[in-house]
Amino acid sequence: MTVDLEGRAPQHVRSERVRLDAVTADDVDDLVAIGRSLEHVWWTFPPVDLPDRSAAAALVDAVVAAWARDGLGYWTVRDPGSRVVLGFGGCSQLRAPTWNLYYRARPSAQGRGLAAEVLQVACDWARAVDPDVPVTAVIRAQNVRAADDVQQVGLSLVHQDDDGGDQARRVYADRDLPAATLAGLLGAFPAS
């Protein structure tokens, strides 16, 4: 993988089964629809909180800024033939000084292995853009599928909250994290 002259990942990528396009303002309605899908809201971390178009538009603005600032961000995941939006995913430094992985999918796109595919592309590009920044994922303890996905792409469990039951946070990373980095990540993703 080769970054451009400014050290940026491509905004349009094709993986084995999906097309990835950098998130734009045109994706707001799909982001709202996926964020409101009750089939997955209970297990996501951080909780999906996109009650309306303005909240989704604010997220899109932050993602566009992340692409400009960091050279990588979230992609809209599309079926390459129909161009139907299947989900959103990638990694960014929006909330912490790590490449934190993110993936959300329409219920109809879940269970097909697309999350691991998108997360692998994100990890590969994160390491190409800035290999000194750790790749991480913060996941609720009950989200076994997401834990499986991030372990498939090479992340290992580096922290688990001592309490909180199913709502406890588990932090996965591609390397050991310095205490300050872990504290910053936990502060960016509060347990409640």
TrEMBL record:
Protein origin, superkingdom: Bacteria
Gene3D superfamilies: 3.40.630.30
UniProt keywords, alphabetically: Transferase
Annotated GO MF terms: acyltransferase activity, transferring groups other than amino-acyl groups
InterPro entries, A to Z: Acyl_CoA_acyltransferase, GNAT_dom, N-acetyltransferase
SUPFAM superfamilies reported in the protein's UniProt record: Acyl-CoA N-acyltransferases (Nat)
Residue ranges of every copy of the N-acetyltransferase domain listed in the record: 17-147
Endpoints of the signal sequence: none
Record flagged with keyword Mitochondrion: no
Protein's UniProt name: RimJ/RimL family protein N-acetyltransferase
